[in-house]
Amino acid sequence: MNIGITVYPTYGGSGIVGSELGRDLAARGHNVHFISSVLPTRVTELGERVHFHEVEMMSYPLFEHQPYDLALATKMATVARAEKLDLLHVHYAIPHSISAILARESIKEKRYVPVITTLHGTDITLVGADRSYLPITRYALQQSDGVTAVSRFLKKATIETFDFDDIEVIPNFICPQHYRRTPDAPLRAELAPDGEKLLVHVSNFRSVKRPADCIDILAKAREAGENVKLVMVGDGPERSAVFYRAEQSGMNGNTIFVGKQANISDYLGVADIFLLPSELESFGLAALEAQACELPVIATRIGGIPEVVADGESGYLSEIGDVEKMAKDTIRLLRDDEMRLAFGKRGRELAVERYSTEKIIPQYIAFYEAVLNKTQAAAA
Ligand code: GMT
Fold this sequence. Notes:
Layout: E1 2-6, H1 13-27, E2 31-36, E3 50-54, H2 68-82, E4 87-91, H3 96-107, E5 115-119, H4 122-125, H5 134-143, E6 146-149, H6 152-162, E7 168-169, H7 186-191, E8 197-202, H8 212-223, E9 228-233, H9 239-248, E10 255-259, H10 264-270, E11 273-276, H11 285-292, E12 297-300, H12 305-308, E13 315-318, H13 323-335, H14 337-355, H15 357-379
Helix pairs in contact: 2-3, 8-13, 11-14
């Protein structure tokens, strides 16, 4: 197949999923065309089967905001015709699915290019549900030729908010060869030179991730006598607030901010426990990546997280903001090596059994085929 993929190209779960899906499809012999403003972060190599088409935008003084959606639609239509795309697969509904639908409609006399929209989370729960976007998001869902969601939770939220239920749940995935434990890597000694245990948090430091809760968990663990450090991976609007919290609670000497990292698995592979105290998470890709690296996960019981983290088996779930319980669970796992390792092993088992690329990518391919058959039958 010739597949067009659009994602938000910077850091963020939906961009990672769309990029890794494209890479995997190319490895399976499909031709993948990324259409985006810049090369998506995880697409490091272009090649015979992986192409990149940059969305160009003219700047004009009349525009207070650049109409990216239109420039994207134009690029999608141009690429669809030139590269004979079989379908356009967009990640994150706003505005990608509307741009794709515009592109499809603008060229449909010449070639009908079905649009598949994958919902990731805030495109439904936060942004899409806002009155300013709700009607157009519902229209985008209705007009897409196929819609997938990354969790059962997100499907349910979409039905409730948009009264739209023709949705296939295809969960996020990891490559088990890439995400694995590497406890003897030199990075472990660099981060924990005195044999400390390592907690790790990975996010884009937005307020929904509640990254400052990680500092509170660390502080409580250290108060309880644990020789432990916290590694904060990523960057975003909350970073200075988190830094301040670390300073205020005297934790700055035990917290290492490493910023954005291209290879998250380097950090997950050498750590001991993963912290994800989010307020909102439709799937929790970071938790899945951590489990694949055999890290027990301390997270909140929200959104799609209970579908990914088995409470009491591969981690512990708590209510939002309950740092007391999260710290207690963290301390229990820090003190009991056998239990921590068993949780890690169970997490890896779940990640590989349920969410490996081998299992999930064929589900996308089958979905593409079903949508193509449906649209071809409708045209005949
Ligand atoms: O969080 C967002 O605003 C969007 C999105 C992103 O691009 O990071 O995150 C969502 O998609 C991820 C990949 O499917 C999920 O793992 C995240 O749970 C989800 N974030 C939220 O629902 C807050």
